[in-house]
Structure formats: C-alpha cells, structure tokens
Amino acid sequence: MTGAGIRIVLAEDQAMLLDALVALMALESDIHVVGRARTGDEALALVREHAPDVLVTDIEMPGLTGIDVAERLRADGSKTRVMVVTTFGRAGYLRRALDAGVRGYLLKDAPIATLADAIRKIVAGGRAIAPELAETVWDALPDPLNDRERAMLRLAEAGRSNKEISEALHLSPGTVRNYFSEAVQKLGARNRIEAGRIARANGWL
C-alpha cells in the first residue's frame, strides 16, 4: 500500500457487474481501480503489469479461474493479495482458494461496504472470510483431483468430446481416456458426466 491509497485490479466476466464494481469502488476515497479484466488471463497480465495491492476476482471466468490466477501469482512470488468474490459458497471452493494463498473470500450478495472493508483488512495483513463460510472449511473433503483431471472435467462439463479435449490439451485420445478413468474412480462415479457433477458439488472444479 502506498500513500496514494489502495490500488486494486477487478476481474469479473459479467460486464454489467464489472462496471458496477468499478463505479462502487470509485466511491471509496482510499481505493483506486488500476485495471479491470473479464478473463483470468487478462487479470493475471494486469497484476503482473501494475503490481496492485489487491486483485478482486471471481472464480469462474473464461480461461484461468480466479483460483488458478491466485496459484500463478503465488508461484511468481507476487505481493498482490487476492480477494475472491463469488457466488460459490461451498466449502470445497473456499478450501481450494485458501490453499492457493487467497486472503479474502466473500459472496456476491455481501454489501459493497463489506467488500471495501475486507480489502482494507487484507491489505493490513489480515484475512476476510465470509462468516457463513468460515466454519464450513474445516468440514470440506480433501480434493482428490489433480490439475489435469480438473481441466478435463471442466471441458467435458462444457460438452466437449474426447477428441476435442485431446486436441485442446495436446494429449493422445488414449491418455484422455486414462485420465477420465482415474477421475471417475477417484470420485466413485459411473461416468465422466457424473464425475463432473460430483466434483462441481464439492467445489473441486
């Protein structure tokens, strides 16, 4: 944080909501939006360019998710703190976010004053977790999926065929089938569609 106030980047794929967040943050005299993104990849690039105090990000966005971005920034050794604002109130999402180094996690129905105060809190070195979720994280089941399995289940959830998935991830069709088989077995599912539903319900996607 500098004497000029708190510098933030906002990442949200819904244009109307992103515009609203920018406008509302403009009402806070000590918080300044230095970048806005509609994809995870844009968010990562903006943080690397501007080195803001805080990245405020959704989880589900085109390309990298908010949690993916947090993991990349942690690997970079970035000093930017990450605040997740999402509709996903499941303990699994919160557990993954905390494991990725996220410092704040709020739900989108929280008042804007709560978000502003949470930003100030994490800049001061604290954490800001939605009270209704803070206790649930201890009951979250461990995520059994690896990054490759997670990426494949997301693509399957989007309706992509095995061939399309193999092309998107530069894997052979046989390797794709093996990954799906592992994911299905780990999740106790009957097929990849059910595996995706189980993973989504637990916050692992």
UniProtKB/TrEMBL annotation:
The modification 4-aspartylphosphate is found at D58. Residues 138-203 form the HTH luxR-type domain. One of its GO terms (molecular function) is DNA binding. It comes from the Bacteria. Keywords: DNA-binding, Phosphoprotein. Transmembrane segments: none annotated. GO terms for biological process: phosphorelay signal transduction system; regulation of DNA-templated transcription. The keyword Phosphoprotein applies. The keyword Ribonucleoprotein does not apply. InterPro entries: CheY-like_superfamily, Sig_transdc_resp-reg_C-effctor, Sig_transdc_resp-reg_receiver, Tscrpt_reg_LuxR_C, WalR-like. Residues 7-123 form the Response regulatory domain. PROSITE patterns: HTH_LUXR_2, RESPONSE_REGULATORY. This is LuxR family two component transcriptional regulator. It comes from Tanticharoenia sakaeratensis NBRC 103193.
